[in-house]
Design a protein that fits this description.
The complex is a heterodimer of chains A (about 100) and B (about 170). By secondary structure, chain A is mostly helical. Chain A has helices at about 5-15, 20-30, 35-45, 60, 75-85, 90-100; strands at about 20, 50-55, 65-70. Chain A has a single domain, classed as Arc Repressor Mutant, subunit A (Orthogonal Bundle), CATH 1.10.10.10. Chain A contains six helices and three strands. By secondary structure, chain B is an all-alpha fold. Chain B has helices at about 5-35, 45-60, 95-110, 115-130, 130-160. In chain B, helix 3 packs antiparallel against helix 4, helix 3 packs parallel to helix 5 (about 130-160) and helix 4 (about 115-130) packs antiparallel against helix 5 (about 130-160). Classes of the chains: A mainly alpha (about 100), B mainly alpha (about 170).
Chain lengths: ~100, ~170
């Protein structure tokens, strides 16, 4: 499991019931949104994450609808187990990611 | 809800399609009739010219109006268009940003239809809210990850079709 996937899972696991949208996840993990999206998509294909479009009127909100992501019940269990088994990313790696988004 | 449609868009799209049909037809016909006379590298200018014309037509379909008139964008309900009317007065992208936005549209078209629409809609949603100082970097990250994602999505699409049994709904 890559460091980026671990960061995304950690962010989602902080409150598994909470839905997070792309920008929120990006800020939480320090990853660029373009990097986080493929990870979320992969997790969704695996059934770990579920997503939905926000049900708002974009004109009233004056912004486009957000896509919200949330861990599924099974996904939360699997993510916890996977993170426990994964090698913890070193502080330097996390700082590098936060500064320059190593994968972007 | 249907997004608002720029009335000029349909005409422009129609013109671009007609131009592409004419070009493709003319190329096929000329190749069939004169193909045998082309020797060595003489076909190269034809191919290059065709590519340029197709690129020009594709760009003309993208120009003006922004994403508000693009395919899908069902989640946006007419609010979309980072390079169009959706921007606030002080938020309008400069030339380079608009160019990169067109790049995002092109990358989304490399992906299977629904997946490309979703990717683009989500990119727009994020880029809309991201602070202006970070927007260019975010667009770049989408542009860099897009082609690889397109390859993965096509692989998924291929596997989905190759798998026996009933198709999964999209």
């Amino acid at each position: 499991m890559t460091v980026q996937v671990q960061l995304v899972l950690q962010a989602l696991l902080r409150d598994p019931a909470k839905e997070m949208y792309g920008l929120e996840l990006s800020e939480e993990t320090g990853l660029q949104p373009g990097t986080a999206y493929p990870i979320l998509l992969r997790l969704e294909h695996e059934g770990w994450v579920t997503s939905r479009w926000e049900d708002v009127n974009p004109r009233a909100e004056k912004r486009p609808a957000r896509r919200y992501y949330r861990l599924t019940a099974g996904g939360a269990v699997q993510a916890s187990a996977a993170l426990a088994g994964a090698r913890r990313p070193k502080g330097a790696a996390l700082r590098r990611l936060a500064q320059g988004d190593g994968a972007a | 809800m249907m997004p608002a449609i720029d009335p000029r868009y349909d005409a422009r799209k129609k013109r671009a399609r007609v131009a592409m049909f004419i070009t493709a037809g003319a190329t096929v016909a000329s190749s069939a009739l004169d193909g045998t006379r082309l020797s060595g590298w003489q076909w190269a200018p034809w191919v290059l010219g065709l590519c340029l014309i197709i690129a020009f037509c594709a760009i003309s379909m993208n120009s003006g109006g922004g994403l508000r008139t693009r395919r899908g964008m069902s989640g946006m309900s007419g609010m979309s268009g980072l390079s169009g009317r959706g921007w606030g007065a002080g938020d309008r992208p400069d030339g380079r940003m608009a160019h990169r936005w067109h790049g995002l549209v092109m990358v989304s078209r490399m992906m299977p239809g629904p997946a490309g629409r979703r990717w683009l809609a989500e990119a727009e949603s994020v880029l809309w809210e991201i602070p202006a100082a970070r927007r260019a970097t975010a667009v770049r990250s989408y542009l860099l990850s897009g082609p690889r994602l397109a390859a993965v999505m096509w692989a998924h699409e291929g596997l989905r079709w190759a798998r026996p049994g009933p198709r999964h709904p999209r």
